[in-house]
Amino acid sequence: MGTHITFKRPDGKETAGYLANAARGNAPGVVVVQEWWGLSENIKGLCDRFAVAGFDALAPDLYKGVVVPYHDTGAANAQMTSLDFMDATTQNVRGAAQYLARNGAKVGLTGFCLGGAVTIIGATKVPELAAGVVFYGIPPEQAAKPADVKIPLQAHFANKDDWCTPAAVDAFEKAMKDAGKSLELFRYDAEHAFVNEQRVAVHDRQAAELAWGRATEFFRKHLG
């Protein structure tokens, strides 16, 4: 449904991504940030789904064409560890937001796993954004302090997550509340990456559909 495009980062460099456009011409935009596997078919499918829901969706390719097979967690971790998160957020993600905002549309940011962490960083660093939806990712506090979040956030976490543990989620929720920030937080009795329907071992359709409905409703409220 979508197409691979190139677009400019704020520093003028070209970068690539996957774009799916809504049927209407003046649609709001959503930047979709990949998991640690790369710009997978699952992420492209989510962009297509956002387009059907009425949003222009653009997923920047943070790994420059590399997509790690789902079984190879070592390679995925190596890719994520070597990623410059600040450059990815302030250049690739911000460039995608600027691309989607060029017709005056409001733009939101969402991401999964690695992309969830990037979404929180983006909420502190990317001025073009109007709202963010986080899926099971939290950055280190030195990368993004809850007190510096500038947009309303919605967040989805799994109770059986050994990366974004329930304790880490509790700490993030408390820090956001203490800072007086707007946060809707939902927990699911599911595994990390429960939205990824290509990963049968962890996918939870009921939780994924519930989270999807909440996310699209949140973006309609804040982006129009």
From TrEMBL:
Signal sequence region: none
Pfam (any one): DLH
MF terms (GO), sorted A to Z: hydrolase activity
Family annotation (SUPFAM superfamilies): alpha/beta-Hydrolases (SSF53474)
Span of domain Dienelactone hydrolase: 16-222
Domain of life: Bacteria
Cross-referenced PANTHER family: ALPHA_BETA-HYDROLASES SUPERFAMILY PROTEIN, CARBOXYMETHYLENEBUTENOLIDASE-RELATED
Protein name as catalogued: Carboxymethylenebutenolidase
